[in-house]
Amino acid sequence: MAEEKKKVGLPPLDWLRVFEAAGRRGGFTAASHEFGLTQAAVSQRIRNLESWLGCALFLRSARGVSLTVEGESYLPLVRQALDSLERSTEDLFGKAPRELRIAALSSHLDALVLPRVGGFLTANPEVRLVTESVSHRAGLEEVETDLQLRYGRGNWQGREAVLIQCEVLVPMVAPALRDHAWKELAAIEVRGERPGWHDWARESGGALPAAAGLSFDSMEHGLTAARQGLGVVLGSVPRAQESIEAGALVRLEVGTPGAAVLEVADGYWLTWSEDRLRSKKQRRLVEAFAAALVR
Question: What domain range includes position 123?
Fold first, then answer.
């Protein structure tokens, strides 16, 4: 195409959008699906753009298409320009988001979102909060929501994250067991990635409570068992806060053998895909939501 005469100025926006999609998605067919066009229509737009620029952007072969050196150089510039134009248009003319969708474990929604979201909803009465609960953390990879509440260290690839609360573990019991001798308390086991009783004993230097016949694979069940007076659980303070404030659970008091606190490197994070918050209005709303959840 080197022999074709270049045109000066900016090519039509439609051609640039199709080129960006084809380059990003690795082919004309995928780009045609994104825009609802035929593959021939996508191919024609890209040929028009190549003719305008006076150089080939894609190499065509029987196995498909691939970017030329010029195409690889041009693609990030076009993508950056389109993103900037979209953000600026949304900031100037777009309406503030009317809905926030958040996915999380049901127990996380119960303990970390619902008790704290009232002030945010009062300050933003036009916003509708929609929750989507998942039964296990791996399920978060399968849902598409604006926001996700995750447990970990905040380093998920492709996601931005704001720390809502650090994880803290402390022995806690039902009020009826508050005055029982430490050696008389049965240890409720919570299996998983959190530290357990042996980690707590090693860090605190305290003695382990008596072994119990209860072992759970979720913190939610461990806390429920403790509320029922079935033993002492090394419980999550963020998850148990409402029960503690209501008097259904008590942290063992300072000076008792089970008073030591075990701080954990993990925490609870409000996260979203890096490419989701494209406008200032979206980001301001999410930042206000995150601030309402932070403890």
Answer: 99-164+267-293
